[in-house]
Every structure is written in structure tokens, then in C-alpha cells.
Write a structure and sequence with these properties.
seven-stranded mixed sheet, 7 helices, Rossmann fold, single chain, globular, binds S-adenosylmethionine, alpha/beta
Length: about 190
Amino acid sequence: MQTVSNVLNLVKQAILPALQNASLIVDATAGNGNDTLFFAEHSLEKAKIYVFDIQPAALEHTREKTRDFAGKIEYILGSHERIGEMVSGEIDVAMFNLGYLPGEEHVVTTKWESTLAAVRQVLDKLSLNGVCVIVVYPGHEAGAQEAARLEEFLGTLAKKKYTAGRYRLMNHSLSAPYAYVVEKVR
Ligand SMILES: C[S@@+](CC[C@H](N)C(=O)[O-])C[C@H]1O[C@@H](n2cnc3c(N)ncnc32)[C@H](O)[C@@H]1O
């Protein structure tokens, strides 16, 4: 397995310590359930994981993949714009793995308006040293716009309260996915 050459794997390794101590985890985009499974496997038994997707098929794949951990997972068929309303308490780890559902027809993708609204809600609820990972896919038009809008917003975060970083391969095509990672520092 590539660890540091694959941005998604890199950030997953980087957030492991936070994950292992987390009480409340949000996977904002269920997709095929790979990220939810990673969160379930590496978190405490008493941790609670909320997972959102607007596509019933995605939520079904995720439910199937994580059935051994179903006791600590809340599967929500709905937009991550509802995080503020559906998740009570402070969030320790959140992940937005944006774009299209892999392996399906590319009809439904995340959209910058709803993504930005949901990211704002997560950041408002982050615990101290809580982390929010956002993986963007600039290789398609909506993904490029989404990345640009997120970058604009994340750059305005008060550095006394949050650190916002960008993890991007330098010698790959500009369309390769990359990640933003935000930590609440105060
Ligand atoms: C790249 S996939 C996620 C990959 C996934 N985390 C995995 O491990 O397989 C992106 C997912 O975001 C979902 N999505 C799109 N808009 C959404 C929204 N407003 N709220 C929640 N999920 C959304 C899509 O249906 C798709 O399944």
C-alpha cells in the first residue's frame, strides 16, 4: 500500500492518533464505505460515527461494508448540510471525501454550495484538537470549482482558532486529488 504517495492514505495516517481517541466522528460522504470502515476499525468501541450520503446505493454499500461495526454507526440518508441539526456534541474527526461515487455513473457529485455549508457546520462543532479532512478532486469542472471555493474560505480562518493545511503532490498532474486538513487549536 502506498502511504505517503497517496494523499488519502497520507491524511488517514496523519489523523490516526486523533481517531484513536475520538468520541464523535463524522463521515460526510459515505460513498462505498471505505472511509467509514477505516474510522470504525480504528476508533474506540464507545465512539459514535455519523455517516451521510444522499444516494441510497452509497449508504447501502456502506452499511454492508461496515456491518460488523453497525452498533456504533448512525447511517443518515441525507445531505451533509444537515450535520448541524443531526449531530449533537463536539466533533473530534470529520472527513469530506468529495466528488463522485466511484464505480457508479458520474451523475451525482458534491456541490460547492452544500459542501461549504457543511464544512462551516463541522468547523463550528470541532472539539479542541479535532480535525476535519477534505479531499478534493479538481479533475472535473465542479470539483475544481469546489476546491477553489473551499480554498478561498479556509484561507480566511482565524489562525488563533484553526490551522488549515493543504497536502498536494508537486510532480503530478494538477487534476490529481489533494487534501485540506483543518485542526482546531484553540
Ligand atoms: C468520492 S464519494 C465518497 C467516497 C467514500 N468516502 C468511500 O470511502 O468510498 C462522494 C460521495 O458523496 C456523496 N454526496 C454528494 N453530495 C452529497 C451531499 N450533499 N451530502 C452527502 N453526501 C453527498 C455522493 O453520493 C458520493 O457517494
